[in-house]
């Protein structure tokens, strides 16, 4: 019973994109590990960019710098 936890930043990911992630992760488990899709769980956690850091910076600040 695979459990896959995908963490992404909260930046406007659509329900369609989330469904594609769920299908893709499930398909990977089927193809690589021969797992049953009916017992494969995929959870997507959306994390605020204030709560996600890269290096010394919050992603929120990094995004602001990229827009300049």
From TrEMBL:
State the EC number(s).
5.3.2.-
Q: Which InterPro entries match?
A: 4-OT (IPR018191), 4-OT-like_dom (IPR004370), Tautomerase/MIF_sf (IPR014347)
State one Pfam family annotation: Tautomerase
Q: Which UniProt keywords apply?
A: Isomerase
List the active-site residues.
2 (proton acceptor)
Which Gene3D superfamilies does its entry note?
Macrophage Migration Inhibitory Factor
Q: Does the keyword Isomerase apply?
A: yes
Q: Which GO MF terms does the UniProt record name?
A: isomerase activity
**Residue span(s) of domain 4-oxalocrotonate tautomerase-like:** 2-57
Write down the top EC class of this protein: isomerase
List the PANTHER family.
2-HYDROXYMUCONATE TAUTOMERASE, TAUTOMERASE-RELATED
What the entry lists under NCBIfam families is as follows: taut
Similarity section: Belongs to the 4-oxalocrotonate tautomerase family.
The protein's name is Tautomerase
What species is this protein from? Colwellia psychrerythraea (strain 34H / ATCC BAA-681)
The gene from which this protein is expressed is: dmpI
């Amino acid at each position: 019973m695979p459990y896959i936890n995908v963490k992404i930043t909260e930046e406007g990911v659509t329900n369609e994109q989330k469904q594609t992630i769920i299908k893709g992760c499930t398909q990977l488990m089927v193809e690589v590990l021969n797992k049953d899709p009916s017992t494969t769980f995929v959870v997507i956690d959306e994390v605020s960019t204030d709560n996600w850091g890269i290096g010394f910076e919050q992603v929120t600040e990094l995004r602001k710098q990229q827009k300049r």
